[in-house]
Amino acid sequence: MKTTRSKSITTAESIARLADKGKDVSRFFSNAGRMMSPVQRVNVDFTASMIEELDREARELNISRQAVIKTLLRRALDEQYVAAAARPGMKERERAAVR
Q1: Where along the chain do its domains lie?
Q2: 41-77: pLDDT as tens digits
Q3: Buried b (16+ CB within 10 A) or exposed e, 44-72
Q4: pTM attached to this predicted model
Q5: Which of 61, 85, 83 is nearest to 71 (CA)?
Q6: What string of DSSP letters covers 14-53?
């Protein structure tokens, strides 16, 4: 009967300990991910009726209110970029910033 050896999972803490000791830890990373920009918190005031709408949408989509807000803002910004890029006479520098 063949026995299979299960791969042990290396924790982030053990990788950090190896790195602290000056060991090469590059084998633990694939470079397949992408760097995320730092998150900045902001406070936004909404009317009670807007919060009710956001909460209704969040319940319907089964996601958090924050996820609804982020999704709607991303859509609105993308629409702005598309509209700006379609405007005649837009400078190439501005067009590049939209991409």
Answers
A1: 63-99
A2: 999 999 999 999 999 999 999 999 999 999 999 999 9
A3: eeeeeeeeeebeebbeeeeeeeeebbeee
A4: 0.53
A5: 61
A6: HHHHHHHTT---GGG--S-S-PPPPP--------HHHHHH
